[in-house]
């Protein structure tokens, strides 16, 4: 066993702080390979491995203060099998006690899964397990939240959760490490020591974290306060390189935060009595993204809404006549959404600019209809896409919408299921809305708003009769869609719904 000790630190320097470990217990090391970095008041000192082998134990953890010649770690010979298998939280005595089982312990990293196209980071929302808990293979460990969907992360192996690298609230990049699982039955060896880790990690939370000495000196020279520097060391400890990063990019901190919902006026002071009865909750990434995208749509597009109303008598009679046969044959209920989807696909053929989008100085006309269907969930609005809706029948459309609705409410939608929409339908009528002006979903150029069906007196052939009526609203981007095209689109939708035979005759 080879000892790794603190080297001579220089004249009048008697102690240093362990800044960073580049290796963890169980890692193979080469002679003279850098193991860790120490920080003093004056310099940063790198500590090389005195011999080749396996890092068996880290004695001085990151953030600890050590004197000259103090023991930092131990290295076992390359051929020794027992030492490398031990978790880094075990003491030397525990390692000797567990030696007969140690060869069976294999550490497996839990990584951030693929998040989807154009999504580079996520927030750790919830951990379902804590350090020391036994986990089964494919059992859910945690839930990540991205701008669009929630992603559950299963355990890649059965064993014991020995370390949580990214706690709740942390922002993680794609393919980042989330946790470590001690694999197999021998993982229980790692559990007792690992279970103590949260308590040890939580200890600094109640007191100020001591920043690195070299960081203090660098902040003083740069005229920066600790509040202006984001620490990347243990428990948020500020390191020398953090100060350098803050000096180079003093305004870069907001880049890693979720953009808050746009606010025109800062919040006014609140009386103490009112403040005591309020609750402040951080916006989820999904809600923040919804707020940003809708505000961007208002700021970018020339939004305009045109209205019409449709007599739903024909659709309701057709649905009542065939809903039982439809469900018996196709295994799904016949709702109203498939009629609206087909009517919109029909109208988009005549007014293709409503199905187009602006890309710089170009207009992209799409010879397909990927229909977005807005779905309300407890976490916010999501828009799954029925791809090639213009080529599908009523049954297929109803099945996909029903499946998407259930998956949306369960938080199971994938990124691919919500991308690529060319037009959107939003049904506020399910919540009782009688009239509204929906906002387009960029980069789309149009969205149809459905509303509540309400009996109203109408004049038909000179007679006043009661008919089930619905207001329709088409919001569109006036930069690409003219008023004539918008009105024509809405009239075609109205005609197709009031006489569904037009859909069969392509009229």
Automatic annotation (TrEMBL):
It holds the Pfam family Biotin_lipoyl. Pathway: Amino-acid degradation; L-lysine degradation via saccharopine pathway; glutaryl-CoA from L-lysine: step 6/6. GO terms for molecular function: dihydrolipoyllysine-residue succinyltransferase activity. InterPro entries: 2-oxoacid_dehydrogenase, 2-oxoacid_DH_actylTfrase, Biotin_lipoyl, CAT-like_dom_sf, E3-bd_dom_sf, PSBD, Single_hybrid_motif, SucB. The keyword Amino-acid biosynthesis does not apply. Gene3D superfamilies: 2.40.50.100, Chloramphenicol acetyltransferase-like domain, E3-binding domain. Its EC number is 2.3.1.61. SUPFAM superfamilies: CoA-dependent acyltransferases, Peripheral subunit-binding domain of 2-oxo acid dehydrogenase complex, Single hybrid motif. GO terms for biological process: L-lysine catabolic process to acetyl-CoA via saccharopine; tricarboxylic acid cycle. GO terms for cellular component: cytosol; oxoglutarate dehydrogenase complex. It comes from the Bacteria. The keyword Acetylation does not apply. PROSITE patterns: BIOTINYL_LIPOYL (PS50968), PSBD (PS51826). Keywords: Acyltransferase, Lipoyl, Transferase, Tricarboxylic acid cycle. Residues 210-247 form the Peripheral subunit-binding (PSBD) domain. E2 component of the 2-oxoglutarate dehydrogenase (OGDH) complex which catalyzes the second step in the conversion of 2-oxoglutarate to succinyl-CoA and CO(2). This is Dihydrolipoyllysine-residue succinyltransferase component of 2-oxoglutarate dehydrogenase complex. It comes from Paenirhodobacter enshiensis.
């Amino acid at each position: 066993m080879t000892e790794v000790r603190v080297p001579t630190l220089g004249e009048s320097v008697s102690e240093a702080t362990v800044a960073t470990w580049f290796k963890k217990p169980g890692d193979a090391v080469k002679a003279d390979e850098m193991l860790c970095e120490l920080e003093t008041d004056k310099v940063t000192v790198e500590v090389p491995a005195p011999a080749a082998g396996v890092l068996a134990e880290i004695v001085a953890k990151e953030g600890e203060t050590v004197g000259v010649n103090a023991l930092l770690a131990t290295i076992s010979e390359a051929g020794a099998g027992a030492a490398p298998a031990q978790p880094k939280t075990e003491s030397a005595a525990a390692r000797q006690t567990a030696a007969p089982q140690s060869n069976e312990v294999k550490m497996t990293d839990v990584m951030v899964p693929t998040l989807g196209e154009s999504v580079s980071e996520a927030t750790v929302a919830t951990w379902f397990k804590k350090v020391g808990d036994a986990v089964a293979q494919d059992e859910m460990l945690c839930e990540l939240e991205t701008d669009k969907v929630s992603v559950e992360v299963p355990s890649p192996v059965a064993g014991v959760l020995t370390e949580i690298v990214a706690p709740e609230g942390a922002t993680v990049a794609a393919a980042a490490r989330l946790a470590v699982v001690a694999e197999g039955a021998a993982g229980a060896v790692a559990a007792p020591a690992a279970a103590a880790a949260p308590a040890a990690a939580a200890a600094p939370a109640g007191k100020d974290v001591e920043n690195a000495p070299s960081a203090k000196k660098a902040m003083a020279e740069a005229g920066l306060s600790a509040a202006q520097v984001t620490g990347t060391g243990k428990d948020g400890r500020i390191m020398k390189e953090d100060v350098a990063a803050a000096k180079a990019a003093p305004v870069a901190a907001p880049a890693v935060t979720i953009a808050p919902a746009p606010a025109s006026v800062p919040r006014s002071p609140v009386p103490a009595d009112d403040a005591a009865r309020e609750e402040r909750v951080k916006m989820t990434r999904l809600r923040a993204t919804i707020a940003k995208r809708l505000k961007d749509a208002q700021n970018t597009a020339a939004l305009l809404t045109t209205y019409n109303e449709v007599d739903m008598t024909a659709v309701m009679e057709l649905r009542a006549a065939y809903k039982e046969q439809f469900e018996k044959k196709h295994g799904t209920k016949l709702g109203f959404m498939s009629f609206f989807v087909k009517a919109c696909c029909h109208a988009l053929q005549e007014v293709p600019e409503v199905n187009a989008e602006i890309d710089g100085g170009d207009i992209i006309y799409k010879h397909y209809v990927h229909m977005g269907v807005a779905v309300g969930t407890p976490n916010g609005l999501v828009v799954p896409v029925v791809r090639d809706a213009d080529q599908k029948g009523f049954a297929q459309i109803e099945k996909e919408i029903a499946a998407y609705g259930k998956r949306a409410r369960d938080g199971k939608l994938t990124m691919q299921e919500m991308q690529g929409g060319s037009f959107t339908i939003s049904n506020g009528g399910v919540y009782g809305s009688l009239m509204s002006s929906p906002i387009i979903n960029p980069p789309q150029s149009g969205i149809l708003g459905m509303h509540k069906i309400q009996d109203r007196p109408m004049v038909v052939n000179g007679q006043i009769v009661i008919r089930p009526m619905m207001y329709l609203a088409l919001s569109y981007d006036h930069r690409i869609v003219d008023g004539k095209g918008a009105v024509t689109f809405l009239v075609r939708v109205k005609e197709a719904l009031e006489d569904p035979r037009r859909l069969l005759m392509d009229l």
